[in-house]
């Protein structure tokens, strides 16, 4: 994210200030704070503290201080109304940056900006003023036109939700929807916002994460975009709250288009990255977030445990029943083992010994391994 800090030294104004400084202070310093005098004389509007609360139901907003929350709301008001600039209620650059990053992490529907300028006005012997100037990627009219197109796509997506879907089913359906309808492409246009996914069907991690968040929020599910690294590259994924518990979901890593697994030629999902604990996530990811994050320990909605595809110990009859039941309605099965020892026994039984032939057609088996998470995926 680009951010520019400008120090503006108004030489002409300072010359005028030298003439009028004494009279201004004699008249006003007992009635108004010096900060207000500075703003008034320079022509800068004072910070508006009556803006609407835009974050009370959002995760990142809830981690901010009162000052940061005010700045968050002032920035949101500016962005939603496509204003050129607004004065913000902080003198600290870090507070401004944290407020902006939290705002963008909470609100995927604000897709017309991803950067801003922070202009600092300095006056000798007086407090500074910070002015927030968004960098708009499009006009308000263009954003409205794109929003109408997005609404059509999202409506069709949500129409496909299973009737009376519970929270888990909804989150899983949307995870699969993004993967099935999006190609990973570093050259995709608008790949840092939801337009790339919903309108172009191609994106990168930020677009995947924001689109998933957008759909979850439409379904009343709390979600926020999380920033960090994976494989030594900048990366983004989601923190999602399902029925009171937090989980991590990485839709990008769940998509085989993101990895060499696409070479098997069959579209599938790597459910290792659906509803993860912090412990599992940190095997492949690291955090670089500006706001605090919870320790995710819940396993109820972990895909493998919820779907009955988790092996604590290896037993041939249990594996056979698991595969038989799952293949009855699905062309692909992914089984997770509790550790590498159990995984190796599963692999030897199904692949090395050829027992998978009991459940598939023909003599060729297509499978994919994820040894970091001890999962084995097999196609029928």
Verbal overview:
Strand 11, helix 13 and strand 12 form a beta-alpha-beta unit. Helix 8 crosses helix 9 (205-218). This protein has a 4-stranded mixed beta sheet. The protein has a 4-stranded antiparallel beta sheet with strand order 9-8-7-10. The chain starts with a strand and ends with a strand. The radius of gyration is 26 Å and the shape is elongated. 40% of the residues lie in helices and 21% in strands. The chain is an alpha+beta fold. The chain has 14 helices and 14 strands. The model is unreliable at 1-41 (pLDDT under 50). The protein has helices at residues 11-28, 34-42, 59-62, 66-80, 93-106, 140-159, 167-180, 194-200, 205-218, 251-254, 278-281, 303-306, 316-327, 340-352; strands at 3-8, 86-87, 113-123, 126-136, 183-184, 202-203, 223-230, 233-242, 245-249, 285-287, 310-311, 332-337, 366-370, 375-379.
For the secondary structure, the number of strands is 14
Helicity range = 40-55%
Q: Separation of termini? A: 44 Å
User: Oligomeric status of the shown chains?
Assistant: single chain
**Into which percentage range does the β-strand content fall?**
15-25%
Structural category:
alpha+beta
Count of helical segments? 14
Descriptive key words:
380 residues; alpha+beta; 4-stranded antiparallel β-sheet; 40% helix
Quickly describe the structure.
The chain has 380 residues and is α+β, with helices and mostly antiparallel strands. It is 40% helix and 21% strand.
């Amino acid at each position: 994210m680009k951010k520019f800090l400008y120090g503006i030294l108004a030489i002409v104004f300072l010359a005028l200030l030298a003439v009028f400084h004494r009279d201004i202070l004699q008249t006003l310093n007992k009635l108004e704070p010096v900060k207000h005098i500075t703003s008034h004389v320079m022509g800068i509007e004072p910070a508006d503290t009556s803006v609407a609360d835009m974050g009370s139901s959002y995760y990142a907003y809830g981690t901010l201080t009162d000052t940061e929350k005010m700045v968050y709301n002032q920035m949101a008001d500016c962005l939603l109304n496509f204003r050129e600039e607004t004065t913000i209620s902080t003198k600290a650059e870090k507070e401004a940056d944290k407020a902006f990053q939290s705002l963008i992490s909470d609100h995927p529907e604000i897709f017309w900006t991803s950067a801003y300028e922070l202009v600092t006005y300095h006056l000798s012997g007086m407090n500074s003023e910070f002015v927030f100037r968004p960098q708009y990627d499009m006009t308000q009219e263009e954003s409205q036109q794109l929003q109408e197109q997005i609404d059509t796509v999202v409506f069709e997506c949500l129409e496909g939700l299973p009737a009376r879907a519970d929270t888990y089913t909804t989150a899983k359906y949307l995870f699969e929807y993004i993967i099935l309808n999006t190609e990973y492409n570093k050259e995709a246009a608008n790949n840092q916002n939801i337009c790339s996914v919903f309108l172009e069907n191609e994106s990168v991690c930020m677009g995947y994460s924001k689109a998933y968040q957008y759909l979850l929020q439409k379904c009343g599910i709390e979600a926020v975009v999380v920033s960090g690294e994976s494989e030594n590259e900048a990366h983004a994924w989601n923190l999602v709250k399902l029925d009171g518990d937090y989980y991590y979901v990485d839709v990008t890593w769940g998509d085989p288009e993101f990895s060499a697994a696409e070479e098997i030629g069959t579209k599938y999902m790597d459910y290792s990255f659906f509803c993860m604990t912090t412990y599992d996530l940190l095997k492949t990811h690291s955090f670089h977030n500006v706001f605090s994050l919870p320790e995710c320990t819940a396993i109820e909605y972990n895909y493998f445990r919820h779907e009955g595809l988790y092996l604590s110990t290896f037993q041939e009859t249990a594996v056979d029943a698991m595969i038989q039941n799952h293949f009855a309605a699905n062309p692909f099965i992914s089984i997770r083992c509790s550790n590498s020892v159990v995984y190796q026994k599963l692999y030897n039984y199904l692949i090395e010994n050829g027992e998978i032939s009991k459940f598939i057609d023909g003599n060729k088996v297509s499978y994919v391994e994820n040894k970091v998470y001890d999962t084995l995926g097999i196609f029928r």
